Every structure is written in structure tokens, then in C-alpha cells.
Amino acid sequence: PWTASIDESAQDLLYMPFWEWQMDFMQEHLTNLQVLPCTNGETDFGYNENTEKKARIVNLCFASDEYKKIRMTYYDAGDATQVFNAVWYPHDDKNLPVLGVDLLVFHRKKYLAIVDFQPLYENDDEHAEGYDSKALLEPIQFKYPSLQGQMSSRFYDETKFFSKNMLFARFEEGNVVDEELYPAFQDYVQEHVKLVQSTPSSDATVSSQVAERYQAYDTYSAERDPATRFFAAMFGDEWAQDYVHDFLFDSAERREPEAAEVEQPVQKQHVPAKEVKPVMPPSSVQPKVAFVAR
Fold it and tell me: Which residues of 208-228 are buried (b: 16+ CB within 10 A; e: fewer)?
């Protein structure tokens, strides 16, 4: 969507090649790819910016014959922060893991990368017949030694909705992005699409079960996503809460405000940032794919 940062003094948009490659790959390899609206009926989450703090965010959402939802996010705050995030949800009748991608860099010194086939169950055998995460992903994982780190339990329990074959890394050397992270990301995306396209559909009973697991995944993720406070400080608390629950994880069970205050008392002392009204993105943000309202 952009060729340069909102901060004119910043370096390049580090993860934009990931965004561009995914867009090209989806249009070439997915069937009946369509753009979905990024809205909850009241707020358009497609684009937002805070010009005072030199930060902006763009979101796109897609569906295809293979995937019920593919969402993409790019957050640009100059050299302070660059983020690329994507989640691919297969249709309910596939009973397969979610593909999750989360790539961040802070001040061009601290890098964090996660790419994973995020399981819906603790046991692989509960997924579609024949799915074996170790056999499928371990050969790819071994190709990239810098991406074989261990995730901490600060925000998430790595035994819930994360596989043992995730690509995970914290690093400080920027060359890892081009030399290992970029090709590893491509390998995981390609393998996930091949898996979904080759897996037969399940019956209605299994589809219902998968829908419940998607809701559990979204609820778990929405409640623990550390980005919520970050977006609240940048774009306002109301926008951030709606963005997390109505776009990022739109099947999540949304807790009552009172419950959130009890579990997170620090929020009661938080002084929200100046509300920034969403603005229309440049025309270059709009993808050239058929639009479908859902």
C-alpha cells in the first residue's frame, strides 16, 4: 500500500516485501479470491493514522474457496516500529490449523518473529486425518537455525494454539530478515495452502466443532493480545477494543467491561490518548480484487 514510511526520516518499510509477496501469491494460487469489508458496521478498520505521532495502520481482509478469512495488517511508525501481521483461517470443513504470521521490529534493533501452523487442538490427531505437524514442518524449520527459538510465557501459553514447530526468533541482526525470515515465511505460506487445497472436506458435525475451536482461538488471542494497549495509546481505547474484537478476532466472546477492569486494574489508571478519527486511505491501498459484502 505504501512505498515509503509516514516518517520521512525513516528507513525503508522493512516488512513491505512480505505484504507484497503475500498479495501476489494469494491472487495467483487461491480460487475465487474476494475482498471482504474491514468493518463492524460502524467503524471502518481499513485505515487509521495518527499524524502527530507519525503512525498509521492499514488492514485488508479476504476470502476464497480455500479460506473463510485471511486478514493482513501493516503498521508503520517509522524506525520506531514496523509490523506485519497475517492470519489465515481455512473454511470450517477443513479442520486444519490456522496459519499465523507476526513480524515486528522496534527501533531497528529488536526483532520478533513468529510464523506457525497454530493448532486448534492439543493433539494433532484431532485435526483432519493424516495431518502431522512434525512431519510437515520440521524439515522446513531445520533449514532456518535463527528461527528455532523458544517463545516465552509472558503473554501466551505456548501449549495453547501454538505448535512445537513454530518459527520463533528474537534477534538484533537485520540480515536475518532477508536471509532466513523471508524465505521461511514463504515456505510456511506455500505449505499451508498446499495442505488446505489437498485436504478433503469434513462433515457438518466436524465443521461445527471447528467453528467452536475458532471461537476459542479468537477469544484466547483477543484477551491476551499485548497490542491492544499499544493501539489504544496510538488510536484511542474505543477504537483499539473494537479493532481487536471486531476485526482481528471477530468471533471472540467479548467480555463485559467490568470483568476487564477487575482482571486488568492498571487500565483504570490509564489516561487514554487523544482520539484519532479514522481517515480514508490513499487509493493505492485498495487491492485490485473483486469485492464481496458479507
Answer: ebbeebbebbbbbbbbebebb
